[in-house]
Amino acid sequence: MTTSLPLLALRTFVEVGQRGSIKSAAEALNVTSGAVSQQIRLLEDRIGVALFTRERHGLRLTAAGTSVHPSLRQAFEQIERTVQTLEDIKGRQTLTVSTVATFAASWLVPRLGRFNLRHPHIEIRVEATSALVDIRRDRIDVALRHGLGVYPGLNVTRLMAPVLVPVACPGLVAAGAVLQEPEDCLNYPLLHDCERADWPLWFTAHGDAADPRAERGSAFEDDFLLIRAAEAGQGIALVPIEYAQAEIVAGRLVQVLDKPWPARFAYYVLTKPDAMQRPAVNAFVEWITEEAQDLG
Question: Measuring CA to CA, which residue among 143, 140, 26, 43 is closest to residue 94?
């Protein structure tokens, strides 16, 4: 007949084995060092096998302890995931989504109403920041990032690649003037992002030789600021059409030339490896992927 072992003693064994210290395990379990020692003695007495070797600077797992510690640790991690699933099911669920401010304001937030209609029990908390975030440390459920898709240790889903188009306020181009070729843009101030790479690459993609004027002009750290500068008549901006769509529809900006160019970078959905097991995370990733596909 299988011996029934106390769950608390097993949990204590896992923590001590992971940390090699009774004091550290006690801090993790929020109990006293004496309570930890008592649980270890209880477990060893119950099974009749030594699990630790007492050393000067802490405890070391014996061969018996080493053989069972990984599986017990995995078992408790599974219990924690199961409890988290129950917490997600209970009541309203909250998802924290991290992305950059421009993408949040111009693309994500205007569409969130459709997600809310489909999943009224899930509340979305949007954190808009350009700073690097650690999904595990900062308790981020989903991150939407612009890059090359290389994010080690995370699940990565390609969302979409922005298409850049040249836009300006309606009054910038003189009445009757028509821009017919990319080089015609060089007759006006060019507005850049902080890297100043898009305009030269755009000219090259459309067959124009390098021109030093393509690197001149004011630069802005954020695409949102770039669009505002174009609205104010400061020059022609090369921006993702998704970002400027509202301004174009409202007549505050016009696309001055029909020469779109796919950007080198794309937007990606990032989650922790086991996050898709959570229904709320799975629902959000499924929804936002559908939204991006609808653009095509």
Answer: 140
CA-to-CA dists, residue 79 to 11, 38, 83, 193, 226, angstroms: 11, 24, 6, 47, 49
- Mean model confidence pLDDT for the chain: 87
The token pair at 37 is 């020692």
93: left (phi over 0), alpha (psi -120 to 50) or beta: beta
d(CA 65, CA 54): 13
10 Å Cβ neighbour count for 100? 19
Distance of alpha carbon 187 from alpha carbon 168, whole angstroms: 13
pLDDT digits (tens, 9 = 90+) for 75-130: 988 988 888 777 766 656 789 999 988 888 888 999 999 999 999 989 999 998 76
Per-residue pLDDT tens over the stretch 223-244: 889 999 999 999 999 998 888 8
* Region for residue 230 given its phi and psi (left: phi exceeds 0; alpha: psi -120 to 50; beta: otherwise): alpha
Judged on CB neighbours under 10 Å (0-12, 13-18, 19+), 198 is buried
- Rounded-to-integer distance, Cα 236 and Cα 140, Å: 36
3-class secondary-structure state, position 247: helix
Put simply, whether the predicted model's pTM sits higher than 0.85 gets the answer no
HSE (side-chain half, CA atoms, 13 Å) at 19: 16
Asked if 198 and 166 count as a contact pair (C-beta separation under 8 A), the reply is: no
3 state DSSP class of 245: helix
DSSP 232: T
CA 94 to chain centroid: 16
Residue-wise pLDDT tens digits, 21-45: 999 888 888 899 999 999 999 999 9
Report residue 79 as tokens. 């219990």
Strands (E), 8-77: 52-55, 58-61
β-pairing verdict for 236-240 and 190-193: parallel
